[in-house]
Amino acid sequence: MAKWGEGDPRWIVEERPDVANVNNWHWTEKNATPWSRQFLQQELNGLEVSSDAGTVTFSDVQVEGEATANNRKAKLIFFYELEVSMKWKGKTADGKSVSGKFKVENLSEEYTPDEFEFEVNMSSEETPARRAVKEMVRKAGAEAVRAKLDKWYKELRVEFTKGMILPTKAKQATPSAPTSGVIIHSEKKDASSSAVEKKEKEVQPRGSFEMDEEFLCSPSDLFQCFVDENRVKAYTQADASIEAKMGGSFSLFGGNVTGVIKDLIPNERIVQAWRFKSWPEGMYSEVTMKFVPGDGCTHLKLTHNNIPDSDLERAKEGWKRHQFERIKGMFGFGTSLAGLM
What we know:
Helices cover 28% and strands 34% of the residues. By secondary structure, it is an alpha+beta fold. The protein folds into two domains: 28-157, Activator of Hsp90 ATPase Aha1, N-terminal domain (Bactericidal permeability-increasing protein, domain 1, Super Roll); 206-331, START domain (Alpha-D-Glucose-1,6-Bisphosphate, Chain A, domain 4). Strands 7-13-12-11-10-9-8 form a seven-stranded antiparallel β-sheet, with helices on one face. Strands 1, 2, 3, 4, 5 and 6 form a six-stranded antiparallel β-sheet that branches. It is elongated and about 80 Å long. Residues 1-26, 168-202 and 336-341 have low confidence and may be disordered. One of its GO terms (molecular function) is protein-folding chaperone binding. InterPro entries: Aha1, AHSA1-like_N, ASHA1/2-like_C, START-like_dom_sf. This is Activator of Hsp90 ATPase AHSA1-like N-terminal domain-containing protein. It holds the Pfam family AHSA1. It comes from Salpingoeca rosetta (strain ATCC 50818 / BSB-021).
C-alpha cells in the first residue's frame, strides 16, 4: 500500500484508452477453454507421422478441462489444466492395420512443452511390425504432438491475450512492439541471461501437503485472520497488504510471500495463487483454505499444491509456526501461546 503522501497510481485520474481498467490494475480474466479446444483439435486432427515402420494419422481429438488467462497489474498469469486424448490409426510397413490411443499426461501451467509426457497404447493385436509402429508413435509421434502443443503454448501467451493489457495515454505516443505481459526473450541474449533462463526452465519436482488445524473460535473470526490487513500485521509482526476480493493481490511478511486471491467465499473458503519471493517470475503454487465449523471450534482445512520440492518443508513450517500458532497465541484461539515468539 502507498504510504501517506506518496502518489498511488490507482488514484491518478487521466484521460486514457483503458478507462475501464486504469493502469491495468484490476484483475481481468479471459476464458481460454473454448479457444484452446478449437486450436488443439484443428492442429492435431489429421496430423500424420511416418517412418520405415509405417504411417499413422491422429484423429478424434478430445480436450477436457479449463484454461484461463488473467491480467493483474499489467502482468499475465495463466491457469490451465487440460486433458488431451486422441486416437491413432495407420498401416505397418507390410500393409497391416494398426491402431491405438495417445494421451497427454500433464498439460498444466506447472510445465513447459518440453516437459510434457505422453502415454501411448495399442489396441491391435501385437506383432513385431505393429510394435515397431507403436514405438514410432511413442517417439516421432510424441515429438510431432509436442510441436503442436508448443505452438498452442506460444499462441495462448501472445495471440489469444492481445488486448488484455491496454496501453496508457503516455504509451500511445511511443508505439512499441506488442507485449503479452509474460517474459518474451529477444533474439540477442548475453551468456549470463541465457544461463538464468535455462536454470528457471529446468524441471522442478513439485509436491503438496494438507493440514487440518483446530481453532477455538467461529469461522468468521478465523476467516478475518486471513483477510483483515491489520490482524495479519499483528500476528505476523511484519508488513502486509491484502485486497480481500476475487482478483485482489496480497503481500505478507514484508513481501516475502505474495499472490492473488482466485476465489473468496466469506467465512467458507479462500483460494490463492501463492508464491515465495525467491521463486522465478510467473511461478505460483495454489492454496485452498476451507473453514469448517465444529463443536465449539473451527477446523481450517488447508491444501497447498504445486510447491517445488525444495521449499515443501519451508512452506509447511511457515503455515504452522508463523501463522497458525501465532493466530492462536495472539487472539486466544488456541490452548497456549506457543509459536508467538
